[in-house]
Amino acid sequence: MFNLAKLLNKIYSAETPDLKDMEQVLLLTQKGQLDELFSFADNIRKEFCGDGILLRGIIEFSNLCAQECFYCGLNKSNHRLKRYRMTENELIKAVDYLGSCNIKTLVLQSGQEEGLDALWLRDIILKIKSKFNMAITLSVGEKSADEYRLWKQAGADRYLLKIETSDKALYESIHKGMSFARRMACLDDLRGLGYQVGTGNIIGFAGQSLKTVAKDIKFFKHGNFDMLGIGPFIPHQDTRMSQDPKGDAALCLKTIALARIVTKNTHIPATTALGSLDQDYRVEGLKCGANVLMPNFTPQPYRKLYEIYPGKRCVDEPVGNCNFCMDSMAKNIGRFIDYSIGDSLKFRDGSRNKGKPSPLEGTVLL
Ligand code: SAM
Question: Coil, helix or strand for 121?
Fold first, then answer.
């Protein structure tokens, strides 16, 4: 008879998790088995990360984008979207507010802006670092190693660049003019420069099989990433993938659970996309392995314009204090909000950069 506990223990203990084993878990549909999987993953989250839920406050400072990701509402061919870039003053004001809510990680995100002035962003990083006690995560896409170095030297701590799918052919078929090798090279540059590096995938692309998802998880394990963002595909009306069905919440939760079991002490958010399906699945995410929430601090009218997919959670609300909402979400499941800076646990235990050189000393060419 099929023994799920045995299978989960095998996956947990494996240096290299077996793809077939993971596929078997991704296939589960029976409630009893799903409960067993989620509680197994939740115990690992508790053991490695504790009961605290870390907060990452996100400011989407620009929706300008030079890329053509077929699923994303920001893609450059979407001429219906009104484009913006916040001014330095607007940005600092938003950071000020975020800091006043006791948030200690700021995520600065934008589309992949061709014209993004690296020195402008560097000066903003310097200003934020001199004024506030917070970690900065950048998420501005594929850039040169020199730009990454410049921002790291200015004080940026972390970088988020999702691989979206670890299947090269699928990746290149939905990212026009982009190369999988370049994405991987960027992740290598970031790691080499000493950033805490986050990546992740989207669940539900047409052409993505359970094997592909299992391979994503294997990729996460081998890359020893500090953070993993796993969220469902949500079709956007002004993209080539507007008619594709949205990603399955249950598959998303199973992927989060497996990523927790396999990667153990990685920070995993219950993503905004997971909270933007027919119902808010972020609580379910927190109960099957996730340990991070990402409240949105982008001020209006910009928040509405950062429409990567429709129906984004909290998009119509003015910037408000999210602490109450986050606190009650945590309390309802017997957890608490951890207002600490929440650095990578892999940095803390020394397992992160074993044997990796740091080219930070290199000359900045900009
Ligand atoms: N430009 C940066 C980059 O390329 O990493 C960050 C901005 S990008 C808009 C942020 C993330 O939005 C992507 O990594 C992708 O996973 C997610 N995203 C975009 N469109 C989406 C969609 N339709 N459904 C779900 N997630 C989506």
Answer: helix
